[in-house]
């Protein structure tokens, strides 16, 4: 399951990277947890997500709950972008809409797995 999530994070990583304007950023789009300006920036959530989920981060060392949280953020982000563009996810077959459907199904799989294995729901479940 972790490998599926890590693979699924590739698309939103590219989308988020493309949406961040690095021209005015003193860190060239690289989140700096120590910089107050990063926390006040309009791209802080995206940059912080990339900082924690970049391809250079050892995602395989993250827990399933951490990866699930990363995937949930990615699904929400891609969903918001798709809605802004006016796509109808039920009928659109573009790459973003297709990924969204796959990402949502993966989130559901992880949630179902958590419940059926007798585990506690993750902190992100509500």
Could you give the topology of this structure?
Blueprint lengths: L1 H7 L1 H10 L16 H5 L3 H10 L10 H22 L9 H22 L10
Helix pairs in contact: 1-5, 2-5, 5-6
Notes on the protein architecture:
It is a single chain. By secondary structure, the protein is mostly helical. The chain contains 6 helices and no strands. The longest helix is centred in the middle third of the chain and has 22 residues. It is globular. The model has no long low-confidence stretch (mean pLDDT 87).
Roughly what fraction of the amino acids lie in strands? under 5%
Gross geometry: globular
Radius of gyration: 15 Å
> Are there runs of 5+ residues with pLDDT below 50, and where?
none
Distance linking N and C termini: 21 Å
Helix content: 55-70%
Which structural class fits the helix and strand makeup? Answer: mainly alpha
Mean of residue pLDDT? 87
Number of helices, where a helix is a run of at least 4 consecutive DSSP H or I residues: 6
Largest sheet: none
Number of strands: 0
Order of helices and strands: HHHHHH
């Amino acid at each position: 399951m972790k490998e599926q999530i890590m693979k699924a994070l590739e698309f939103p990583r590219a989308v988020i990277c493309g949406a961040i304007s690095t021209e005015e950023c003193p860190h060239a789009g690289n989140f700096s947890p120590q910089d107050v300006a990063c926390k006040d920036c309009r791209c802080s959530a995206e940059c912080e997500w990339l900082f924690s989920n970049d391809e250079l981060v050892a995602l395989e060392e993250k827990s399933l709950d951490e990866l699930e949280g990363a995937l949930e953020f990615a699904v929400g982000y891609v969903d918001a972008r798709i809605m802004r563009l006016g796509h109808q996810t039920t009928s659109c077959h573009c790459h973003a809409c297709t990924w969204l459907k796959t990402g949502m199904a993966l989130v559901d799989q992880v949630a179902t797995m958590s419940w059926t294995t007798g585990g506690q729901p993750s902190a992100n479940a509500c």
